[in-house]
From TrEMBL, chain A:
It comes from Thermodesulfobium narugense. It is a multi-pass membrane protein. The lineage of its organism: Bacteria, Pseudomonadati, Thermodesulfobiota, Thermodesulfobiia, Thermodesulfobiales. This is Carbohydrate ABC transporter permease. GO terms for biological process: transmembrane transport. It is found in: Cell membrane. The keyword Transmembrane applies. Its main location: membrane. Keywords: Membrane, Transmembrane, Transmembrane helix, Transport.
Length: 271, 263
């Protein structure tokens, strides 16, 4: 078994190195001048690390990075707040049809959201929020609400029933109970929902692409996609841009990775 | 919104403003007769086979191998497979578009040293498979963490007892792990199928459906038909096709989740 374990560990490390290659290449190229890339020096570290690519990419992205922050943070908070309220109702009060309701929420959570693209764009246009950050917040809240609901309600299920019973005996109304008791003990569940929702929204492409045509209100991801046209063969600048927009996701993984995994496996795994 | 789409899919709506001219099943009929639709459909099936199955199986095998990786290393290694999930598919698309670029890409550089000259993203027969590799790179971590969690749920005694009996790695995998992670298998494979049904961004960023229309998939065609050609009725019809396929995949997992959680 000992030798077997060693070989397995070696194999997994080998695969992990392959998995890291794309991001290594991305960062490596982002530090190189185009002259070095054109001669095929991809893998060797940059002889003279340059920050110009990063500055140029940042310059092209900065307005839309700010837009992404303005959209993704409020949309995450609202979606998780509304989702957790409804998740709480479903998990705590077993009413007739709550099973069916849960079934439909699971369906809506995992339906490809592309199906809602056409009606959603028409809706946003008709309420006059096209090319408007508010329109995107609204769209992302609608699209992420079911997932936030699902994750939080699964979490609330794991809480002991006695918690609520004790509160009811003490005459604690549901709203007070929610804020005073439930939120503090459910912080891990709420964080999982928030982390997953935030990365979804930050990285999302097609909704962001379809809800704004204006460079002033475009989000970071569609702007990066657009750079592929404007910097056609300048891979070094593109790679710097790609690395910059990846920072929030990587930060989330480093500091909140545990919650990210919990959110991903919610529904599949019982505590 | 779904009902609205269903209604629009039976309208002859072309252009920016709604046109409520009832067209019955006209939009579906013209899809049925369109070779572009069947090409996109075929590409979705290629994704189904060449993306879903390898990702799911490799994810399961890797999750099992992780059982034997020293604990100190395993959370670090897990993050390596997870990071593609927290970066945007646009980022993945940009990086992999460069890797498989026929002119500047590292794949063509390496292979031309070996005197093998391939078309990569420029080759209609190969381009979809290049996209699929990017997809596998991005989604493997998802299958991996779900399976790691599912394997973690297997009662330790089962595995330990088998080890004492001198069962091989392979025997433990086949006789204990595979049967006991059935629930996770249903979820992993269903969600990977759903991923393959909405693969849009990688296609948009890496090939724009090209060369020609060779890498188009249903979601990409839906977007193009709706927002470039402004044939909204037809686009809605494609989205209803995606919906119909998705719902077939979704009903079993939703039922099983409901059973598991509301009992």
């Amino acid at each position: 078994m000992k030798a077997g374990k060693f070989i397995i560990t070696f194999l997994v490390i080998f695969l992990a190195i392959i998995w890291l290659m794309p991001v290594y290449l991305m960062i490596n190229i982002a530090f190189k001048p185009i002259s070095e890339i054109n001669v095929g020096a991809y893998i060797s570290p940059p002889s003279n690390p340059a920050s110009e690519n990063w500055l140029e990419a940042f310059e092209a992205l900065k307005t839309s990075l700010l837009n992404s922050v303005i959209v993704s943070i409020p949309a995450t908070l609202i979606a998780v707040f509304l989702g957790s309220w409804s998740g709480y109702a479903i998990a705590m009060y077993k009413f007739a049809g709550s099973k069916t309701l849960f079934f439909f929420i699971a369906i809506v959570t995992y339906l490809p959201y592309l199906i809602f693209l056409i009606p959603l764009v028409k809706l946003i246009v008709s309420v006059g929020l096209f090319n408007n950050l508010l329109g995107m917040i609204f769209a992302y809240v609608i699209l992420n609400f079911p997932m936030a609901l699902l994750i939080t309600s699964l979490f609330f299920q794991t809480l002991p029933k006695e918690l609520q019973e004790a509160a009811a005996v003490d005459g604690c109304p549901p709203i007070t109970f929610y804020f005073r008791v439930l939120i503090p003990v459910s912080l891990p569940g709420l964080t999982s929902a928030a982390v997953l929702t935030f990365t979804n929204i930050w990285n999302e492409f097609i909704i962001a692409l379809s809800l704004s045509q204006d460079p002033l209100t475009r989000l970071a991801i569609p702007t990066l996609a657009g750079l592929r046209g404007s910097y056609a063969a300048q891979w070094n600048i593109l790679m710097a841009g790609a690395a910059i927009v990846s920072i929030p996701g990587i930060i989330v993984l480093i500091f909140l990775g545990r919650f990210f995994i919990k959110g991903l496996t919610a529904g599949a795994i019982k505590e | 919104m779904l009902g609205w789409s269903a209604i629009v899919s039976s309208m002859k709506w072309i252009g920016m403003t709604p046109i409520w001219n009832f067209a019955g099943i006209y939009n579906y009929q013209s899809l049925y007769n369109s070779s572009e639709f069947w090409l996109a459909f075929k590409n979705n099936i290629i994704w189904l086979i060449a993306f879903v199955i390898p990702t799911g199986i490799v994810g399961l095998i890797m999750a099992y191998l992780f059982e034997y990786v020293p604990r100190k290393l395993s959370s670090l290694l897990k993050s390596v497979f997870l990071y593609p999930l927290v970066i945007s598919p646009v980022v993945a698309g940009v990086v992999w578009a460069w890797i498989f670029d026929p002119q500047y890409g590292i794949a063509s550089t390496i292979f031309s040293v070996l005197n093998v000259h391939l078309g990569w993203l420029g080759d209609p027969a190969m381009a979809t498979f290049c996209l699929i590799i990017a997809g596998i790179w991005q989604e493997l971590g998802f299958a991996l963490v779900l399976y790691i969690a599912a394997i973690g749920e297997i009662p330790r005694e089962h595995v330990e007892a088998a080890k004492i009996d001198g069962a091989s790695y392979w025997a433990i995998f086949v006789n204990i792990v595979i049967p006991e992670v059935g629930h996770a298998t249903l979820i992993v494979f269903s969600l990977l199928v759903l991923y393959s049904l909405q693969v849009f961004t990688l296609v948009w960023v890496m090939t724009s459906g090209g060369p020609g229309t060779s890498t188009e998939v249903l979601p990409y065609m839906m977007y193009k038909v709706t927002f470039d050609r402004l044939m909204v009725g037809q686009g809605a019809a494609i989205s209803m096709v995606i919906f119909a396929i998705s719902i077939i995949v979704l009903i079993p997992i939703s039922i099983s989740m409901m059973r598991r959680w509301m009992s």
